[in-house]
């Protein structure tokens, strides 16, 4: 399934929409060969209390951030590579 979506127009539009949610605070997500596999709201278990986050699962990275409902923006994106065990935070 992922192979069929790699160069599809629908995949490109979905990735552009996710990229626009992060605004200028995020890094470019439109990388050749990248596919948006799934997205949704999950509860991240943090030290003090559980926190709701918007998650985007790509074929090579996992991206999540805080949800701002009024502006439909997501702030403080965190990128986790599925190929390397490395977490990077952007504000």
Automatic annotation (TrEMBL):
GO terms for biological process: endosome organization; endosome to lysosome transport. One of its GO terms (cellular component) is early endosome. One of its GO terms (molecular function) is phosphatidylinositol binding. SUPFAM superfamilies: PH domain-like. Transmembrane segments: none annotated. PANTHER family: PLECKSTRIN HOMOLOGY DOMAIN-CONTAINING FAMILY F MEMBER 1 HOMOLOG, PLECKSTRIN HOMOLOGY DOMAIN-CONTAINING FAMILY F MEMBER 2-RELATED. This is Uncharacterized protein. The lineage of its organism: Eukaryota, Metazoa, Ecdysozoa, Arthropoda, Hexapoda.
């Amino acid at each position: 399934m992922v192979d069929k979506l790699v160069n599809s127009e629908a995949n490109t539009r979905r990735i552009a929409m996710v990229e626009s949610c992060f605004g200028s605070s995020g890094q470019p997500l439109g990388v050749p060969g990248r596919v948006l596999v799934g997205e949704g709201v999950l509860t991240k278990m943090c030290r003090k209390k559980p926190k709701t986050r918007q998650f985007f699962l790509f074929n090579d990275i996992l991206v999540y951030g805080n949800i701002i409902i009024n502006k439909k923006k997501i702030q403080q994106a965190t990128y986790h590579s599925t190929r390397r065990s490395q977490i990077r935070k952007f504000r």
